[in-house]
Amino acid sequence: MPQHGPALNFRDFVDDLLAAGDAVRIDQRVDPELEVGAITRRVYETKAPAPLFANLTGAEPGFRLLGAPAGLNSTGAQQYGRLAAHFGLPRTSTPRDILEKLIEAMHADPLSPVTTADAPCKEHVQLGDDVDLERFPVPLLHQEDGGRYFGTYGFHVVASPDGTWTSWSISRTMLHGRTTLVGPAMPQQHLGMIHAMWRERGLPTPWAMVLGAPPAAVAAAGMPLPAQVNEDGYVGALTGHPVEVVRAETNDLYVPANAEIVLEGTISPDETAPEGPMGEYHGYSFAESRPQPVFHVDAITHRTDPILPVCAAGLPPEENHTIWGTMISAASLDLLRSAGLPVDMVWCSYEAATCWMVISIDLDRLGRLGTTERALVDAIAEVLFDSHPGWLVPKVILVANDIDITDIDQVVWAMATRAHPGTSHYTFPDAPGIPLVPYLTPDEARAAKGGKSITSCLQPEQFQGTNKGITASFRGSYPKHLQQHVLDNWTSYGFR
Ligand SMILES: Cc1cc2nc3c(=O)[nH]c(=O)nc-3n(C[C@H](O)[C@H](O)[C@H](O)COP(=O)(O)O)c2cc1C
Ligand SMILES: [Mn+2]
C-alpha cells in the first residue's frame, strides 16, 4: 500500500480538502488558458475553497489541476486549515502551532527516506519519443506571462556530484518545448549551488521534478534549511515517517513514490532560453524575460488521472506567502532564538508579500538585558542578514510581544504609534539580499545587496521593562472577571 495521509500523500490531501469543504470540484469545462488562472486568483483574493479543475479544455479525460493548494480559508478558526493540512496538523492550527512543529523537526534527528516497490507515480511511464509535456493541461496563468507554467508548485530534485547532498527545492519552470522546460536556478539557492557543481565538471546536472508531491515535502522544498541539509530527511522528522521514494527511470535520483507527476532528465550546463515574465510573489509582473537554464526531460511518469497543483502567483495571499513566508518565519525564529536573542515570535505577514518579517521581542527578557535599541538591532541584523532565510526578506520590523504579530491590524497600530520617524529606522546598504525585491535600484539588484532595513516599534520604556501607557482595549481596560462575565453573557446580550 502506498504511503497515506494528507501530509505524505497529495491525493489524500485533496480528498481531505474536498471532505472538509475546503476544495471544490469543478466539473464545468474550464480553459487552462487564463480561465484557470483567473479562477485561482479570485479564490486567493476571496479566501474561497481550492478549485479542483476536473474538466479542462483540450486535456485528456481525467487530467486535473488543483489551484490554490495552500490558499487561506475565509472561515476564521480554519483560516490556516489548508496550510496546516500540509503537515497533518488540525485545521484549526494557529501560526504558533505550525511554527513550533516546524522548529521541533529542525532539532530532531532526520528520518531518511525509504525505497518502496509500491509506486503509483510509475502507473504511466513515457520514455524517448513518447515524452510530451504538452499532454498535460499546462496553464497560462496571467495574460502578461511569457509562457505557460508547468512547475509552480512542484520541487526540483538534484544531488551533489559526490552524492552526499540531495536537495528538494521549489523554483518555477516554464514550458519551453515538447521535452524542455526553462526556469531560474539562482546561484544563492541550493538548486543553483548544486547545478554549479556539475557545470564546473562540464556535466549536465541529473535532475527530476516532482509535481503533486507529498504536501509536507513540497512545503519543506520551499523552506530555507541550511545548505547540505537534505530536505527529504527533514520531511521524515516532520511527519514522523520516512518518505517512501522510488528510483527515477533514467538517473540515480529518488522521488516520492506516490507523486502525481514526475519529470526526469538533466539541466543543461550551458544552454539557456528566455523565461518569463510571470506574475510574481511580490505582487507585480515586470515586462522582461531573462535567460535561464534549460531543463531536458527524458522521461515522464505519472499516476492515473494525475492532478497538477498550480500556484497563480501575485497579490497575497498565495503559496509564496502562506508556504514560503511561513517556512521562512520558522527558520528565522529558530535562528534568532538559537542565537540567544530575546525573540518570542517571527511572522512574515502574508499581506506584505514576503517582503517584510515582523519579529516580536519578549518584553520581560528585554527589560532584564539592559541593552540599547542600536545594539539589539545590530545583533539581529548580524544573525539574520547573512543567513539563508534572512537573505530572502528585505525588511524587518521589531515590536514588543504585547502585540500579536500574526494580526496585521495590531502590527499596523504598533507601527503607527510606536515607530519614531528619524530614529526608529535602520538601513543596511551592504547586506546581501534577494535581487527580486521590486523597489531595489538597478545597481542594488545587480549587486544583490542593499534595500534592507530594520524598523523598531520598541518604545524606550520597553528597554527598561515597562510599557508607555496601557492599551485601551477589551483585554487591557477591564478586570479579568468582568471580561469573563461579558464573554459568558455575549449571546444572552443578543449578539451572535
Ligand atoms: C510557491 C513557491 C514558489 C517559489 N518559486 C521560486 C522560484 O521560482 N525561484 C526561487 O529561487 N525560489 C522560489 N521559491 C522559494 C524557494 O523554494 C525557497 O527559498 C527555498 O528555500 C529554496 O530551497 P533551498 O533553500 O533548498 O535553496 C518558491 C517558493 C514557493 C513556496
Ligand atoms: Mn535546501
TrEMBL record:
Write out the entry's keywords from A to Z.
Aromatic hydrocarbons catabolism, Decarboxylase, Flavoprotein, FMN, Lyase, Manganese, Metal-binding, Potassium
Cited NCBIfam families:
UbiD family decarboxylase
Residues in 3-octaprenyl-4-hydroxybenzoate carboxy-lyase-like C-terminal domain copies: 321-456
Q: What is this protein called?
A: Pyrrole-2-carboxylic acid decarboxylase
Enumerate the residues binding Mn(2+): H190, E231
Say what the protein does. Catalyzes the prenyl-FMN-dependent decarboxylation of pyrrole-2-carboxylate (P2C). Can also catalyze the carboxylation of pyrrole in the presence of elevated concentrations of CO(2) or bicarbonate.
Q: Which GO terms describe its molecular function?
A: lyase activity
Describe how the cofactor binds: Binds 1 Mn(2+) per subunit. Binds 1 K(+) per subunit.
> What superkingdom does the record give?
Bacteria
* Family statement: Belongs to the UbiD family. UbiD-like/FDC subfamily.
Quaternary arrangement and interactors, per the entry?
Answer: Homodimer.
Q: Which residues form the 3-octaprenyl-4-hydroxybenzoate carboxy-lyase-like Rift-related domain?
A: 114-314
